[in-house]
Amino acid sequence: MVTRLLLRLSGLYSPDVLTTAYRWEKPVDALDGKDIVLFASYAPAGALRPYTQAYVSAFRDEGFFVVLILIADDPNVVVNHSACGGADAILVRGNAGFDFAAWATALRLLPSLWNARMIVLANDSVFGPFSGFSSLVRRLRHSVGDIVGLTESAQIRRHLQSYFFAMKTGALRSERIRHFWKRVRNLPSKRAVINAYEVQFLAYAERAGLRSEALFPLQLPRRRSRRAKSPTHDYWRKLIATGFPFMKVDLLRDTPVDTTGWPEFLREHGVDIDPIVKHLLTVAPNSEALVALKGLDANREVDHGTRAG
Questions:
Q1: pTM strictly above 0.85
Q2: Does residue 298 have a pLDDT over 50?
Q3: What is the Cα–Cα distance from 58 to 180, expressed in whole angstroms?
Q4: Are 201 and 176 in contact (CB under 8 A)?
């Protein structure tokens, strides 16, 4: 009931996704039978950030056909193809409705997507992939779930987190799922998108009789908390320690939870932190994450000097 009400209200009062300007920078033909990634990224200058380029390239290395959706304030922006991670197709879209609207636009424009073998919906909100991405992809391909995510959250209600989730054959052939995506609109805020689409999608799919799986389930504490936990924020260390190959960008950019010791932790797990540091220097030069890193490097210099003396 709640799902239907939210979707109905979003359809009544918000613009259709195709009312936002878009253009094909690099068009595509039939996508039947392929493993597809619909990758949404905010790119106002027409180029992906370096860490996102590496992410898109990693998908291609694993045999996915990448449809890159560049979200720009100016949909006529000049696209730098060499900074698009080798994407197979590029759709440029105006900045409206957030990622769900971007994905819905591609699904509306490319009906052959519904004949794909699998569609992964992903975005640029994570650093990575770190080591273990090939293993993740193998698990994804072997999953018996119709809807497969990496992590699930109990915030608001149980749902798969939308930075990375997949629709496999059972979901792609479901008329209920196609109906869900046809009803997606340009909602005005990120919170509205989360409430109407991200949080409701899993319940909608399960009511359609579809199976779901989270590839990195966590045994959450049994004792009650004043707020539900977000695995990618509150349990980021546990996730990475179990082979999860990502870290949310806002963890280090905005520091919503404790990230003490993040450089040492990531290095201990084989992560090259240089791309992370370069991004933070650009978008959040005064972030707590960089302050902590500078303190760590300063201590190392002192220790080195002491030993050398």
A1: yes
A2: no
A3: 29
A4: no
CATH 3.90.550 in the chain: give the residue spans.
2-214
Taking only the tens place, the pLDDT of each residue in 215-274 is: 999 765 555 444 567 899 999 999 999 999 999 999 999 989 999 999 999 999 999 999
Helix 199-207, helix 175-182: angle, nearest 10: 150
| Non-local CB neighbours of 41 within 8 Å, separated by 6+ positions | 48, 52, 68, 69, 70, 71, 123, 124
User: What rounded mean pLDDT belongs to the chain?
Assistant: 90
pLDDT in tens, 49-98: 999 999 999 999 999 999 999 999 999 999 999 999 999 999 999 999 99
Q: Which residues pair with 23 in a beta bridge?
A: 92
Q: Which fold has domain 2-214?
A: Spore Coat Polysaccharide Biosynthesis Protein SpsA; Chain A (3.90.550)
Residue type, 249: V
As given in the structure block, the two tokens for residue 76 are 């006529």
Q: What is the token pair recorded at 148?
A: 């497969």
- Among 68, 71, 130, 120, smallest CA distance to 95 is for 71
